[in-house]
Amino acid sequence: MPKMKTHRGLAKRTKVTGSGKVKRMKAFKSHILNKKSAKRKRNLRKSGLISDANMKQVKRMLGL
Hints:
- It is built from three helices and three strands; from the N terminus they run αββαβα.
- It is of the alpha+beta class.
- Strand 1 and strand 2 form a beta hairpin.
- The mean pLDDT is 92.
């Protein structure tokens, strides 16, 4: 059976940390920013981690 291919869309959007967790950027930070509060935009700057519930699927998509 051939090797599984990496899901390129996910690979471009995420980064794997040294401990094996997967980091991602948060959504809703690209446009229509004037109606969003400064606090909300500041919190969207922080990088998010993939939740444990989705970790199995994400690792399979990344080929980890």
